[in-house]
Amino acid sequence: MSARNEAELPFFFGPERALFGLFHASGATARKAVLLCPPFGQDQIRCHRLYRQLAQALATEGIAVLRFDYYGTGDSAGDSVDMDWQRCLADTVVAADELRARSGADRVFAFGARLGGSIALAAALQARFAGVVAWDPVLDGRTYAAQLDIMQSALCFDDKRFMVPREAADAAAQWLGFAISERLRQQITTMHVDGPTVPTLLLDSLSPDAPRRLNGFMVDAAMTRSLDIHTPWNDSRRLEVAILSHPLIQAVTQHVREAA
Q: How far apart are CA 110 and CA 97, in angstroms?
């Protein structure tokens, strides 16, 4: 097995070793490290390759990285109906401590896309993040949940995916193919992320017509950067298409590298 593969060896950690992680070593004693907080559901699947590319780019810069899955997602224990917002925040704190222990770095940053960015922001103080990079974070849970409901309803009648329209009951309690609990629905619907509590860079790639309240969120406008290419988060025609963005990877890598 190559040294690189050993550095990417998967492992389980946390209470009852229920959380799955993948550590990207920096090749030397790291002064900085980045915890990659994943988004949920289809967003997580579509961003999987980008997260791996980002981890490799950061590791090449001498920055250790931990990718992980919240309880009930990905390769961690539990099913999607077990997902819980508060548990996601607690898992993020555990993952940040795990990254500190493995890397030896005292400055741990967080990156997250969509709800992953929301979680990084919400857990920032407890996880002792030195900074957060949030990519199109969800700041209004009610609007986000409503959009998922619209897309879920549209899928029932999508004749490009299903030869026969699905019954409403068959697709109930799901968001884009992932079973969810009523508890999680309520948690997301009432979720509200206040202003940043640690130094934050917000990367904006939402389309011009997408619901947004970013202007009222950031205190320092200089810490908001727009990406030229819009990300089709809510385009149901592209649910099976991976989300890739080299400008995003470059922006995150540069920001963490230059962070004091």
A: 12
Give first-to-last CA distance, the chain, whole Å: 36
Confidence band, pLDDT 50/70/90 cuts, at residue 168: low
Three-class secondary structure assignment of the chain:
CCHHHHHCCEEEECHHHCEEEEEECCCCCCCEEEEEECCCHHHHHHHHHHHHHHHHHHHHCCCEEEEECCCCCCCCCCCHHHCCHHHHHHHHHHHHHHHHHHHCCCEEEEEEECHHHHHHHHCHHHHCCCEEEEECCCCEHHHHHHHHHHHHHHHHCCCCCCCCCCCHHHHCCEECCEECCHHHHHHHHCCECCCCCCCEEEEECCCCCCCCCHHHCCCCHHHEEECCCCCCCCCHHHCCCCCCCHHHHHHHHHHHHHCC
Cβ-in-10-Å burial (0-12, 13-18, 19+) of 176 comes to middle
Angle at 117 between CA 8 and CA 174, to 5 degrees: 90
Q: Is the CB of residue 165 less than 8 Å from the CB of residue 156?
A: yes
How confident is residue 135, by pLDDT bands cut at 50, 70 and 90?
very high
Question: For residue 83, with 0-12 CB atoms within 10 Å meaning exposed, 13-18 middle and 19 or more buried, which class applies?
Answer: buried
Between helix 115-122 and helix 41-60 the angle, nearest 10°, is: 70
Residue 182: exposure state from Cβ atoms within 10 A (0-12, 13-18, ≥19): exposed
pTM for the structure as a whole: 0.90
Rounded to whole angstroms, the Cα distance separating 254 from 46 reads 23
C-alpha 112/C-alpha 51 separation (Å) is: 9
